[in-house]
Write a structure and sequence with these properties.
The protein folds into three domains: 108 residues, DNA Polymerase III, subunit A, domain 2 (DNA Polymerase III, Chain A, domain 2, Roll), CATH 3.10.150; 102 residues, DNA Polymerase III, subunit A, domain 2 (DNA Polymerase III, Chain A, domain 2, Roll); 114 residues, Roll (DNA Polymerase III, Chain A, domain 2). Helices cover 20% and strands 44% of the residues. The chain has seven helices and 26 strands. It has a nine-stranded antiparallel beta sheet with strand order 14-11-12-13-26-25-24-18-22. It starts with a strand and ends with a helix. 37% of the residues are buried.
């Protein structure tokens, strides 16, 4: 195998592939490498941890077809350190390759092993979306995915396509984020790990994105990058039944002022779990925002417009996450019991409050 390519192009492809390479020692040493496959249509640059695979299609000048598996971290750091130039990669034996740049060369070990094959999704359904719109929605929604993988289905983002729209939903059972996008005619429903969604947000830059969902696998294709991710099993809750249709109270508050107040409240944490809880109460056009820990407390008042009154505790971080992804100078929050709904056009965020008795017991 031998090919030549611009340093910046190679660095970009290697960076993408390294996002799927295991950070820690893998039981399969070959997974610490980046797989290169050169043919006369270009070069595939691939990394995987078996749960997620990133494959970049790279244009290059091909001298000899072939393949090689080169240690990922060393290869990427080497190319990253180079000045702008043309880089030639040549496999010289089953155990070594030579990287040539400017008038210099670097001989590097290659793995003499089989690299895992990445399958295409079986029984596929493909949806095409505007990439910027999808990735923006994914960023908002993924905030509500659980960090606890005990209940795996809650640690991912549901991609639910209907004949009418395309829904992204995540919930950790204490909150739920839901974004509705314009969809196509096809139907599919898969839960994608949050980690895979975050990698897609980091790597996919083109105008359009194709999402191909199949049996236990989803593929994101945009520009010259393909991201394959195993999907999560388990029954995702019916999100349409979680959001109430009627509410008991509504508060309109200055977004910036409320965010700043919550940030100050989040400085105070109580109980062993170190959770910041905030008490929200309304009366006569004022929102009272109170928080405390064992040694400190904060009490603030905000002028608001409201219908009905509230008296409820919330996890401060959950409210901050929800408010941080909505635009507008004012935020409307609707309440039913100890649940709050923050919405903006086709996005909504539901946050379940802390039952007052639990909050008192935790103090």
């Amino acid at each position: 195998m031998q090919f030549s390519v611009d340093k910046k192009v190679l660095e970009s492809a290697l960076y993408a592939a390294t996002q799927a390479v295991p950070n820690n020692t893998s039981p399969l040493p070959v997974l610490s490498g980046i797989y290169l496959s050169a043919n006369y249509s270009g070069v595939q640059v691939l990394g995987t941890d078996l749960n997620i695979t990133v494959n970049t299609e790279m244009e290059a000048e091909i001298v000899d077809e072939g393949e090689a598996i080169i240690p990922a971290k060393r290869f990427y750091e080497l190319v990253k350190s180079m000045r702008s130039c043309t880089v030639t990669v040549r496999k010289e034996s089953e155990t070594s390759a030579v990287i040539e740049y400017e008038k210099n060369s670097f001989r590097i070990h290659v793995y003499d092993e089989e690299f895992p094959v990445t399958p295409e999704p079986e029984n596929p359904t493909t949806i095409e979306l505007d990439a910027k719109t999808f990735l923006s929605a994914a960023k908002k929604v993924s905030l509500a995915a659980s960090e606890d993988e005990v209940y795996a289905v809650f640690s991912g983002v549901l991609l639910d396509a209907t004949p009418f729209d395309f829904n992204l939903v995540a919930t950790d059972r204490h909150r739920l984020n839901w974004q509705v996008l314009e969809g196509g005619d096809d139907e599919t429903s898969v839960v994608v790990p949050k980690n895979s969604i975050e990698k897609a947000m980091r790597l996919l830059k083109s105008d359009r994105i194709e999402i191909t969902a199949g049996d236990n696998l989803v593929k994101f294709h945009s520009g010259g990058i393909n991201i394959y991710a195993k999907t999560l099993s388990g029954k995702f809750p019916d999100y349409s039944k979680i959001v109430p249709l009627k509410f008991e109270a509504e508060v309109k508050v200055n977004s910036e002022e409320f965010l700043d107040t919550l940030k100050r409240a989040s400085l105070l944490t109580s109980n062993l779990a170190k959770i910041s809880k905030v008490h929200l109460k309304t009366k006569d056009g004022i929102l009272y925002v109170d928080a405390e820990d064992e040694k400190s407390e904060v009490n603030e008042k905000l002028e608001i417009q409201h219908e009905g009154d509230i008296d409820v505790f919330f996890n401060t971080r959950y409210l901050l996450d929800s408010l941080s992804v909505v635009d507008g100078s004012e935020t409307v929050i609707k309440f039913k019991g100890n649940m709050a709904k923050i919405e903006e056009e086709d996005f909504c965020s539901m946050v379940v409050g802390i039952v007052t008795e639990e909050a008192e017991a935790a103090s």
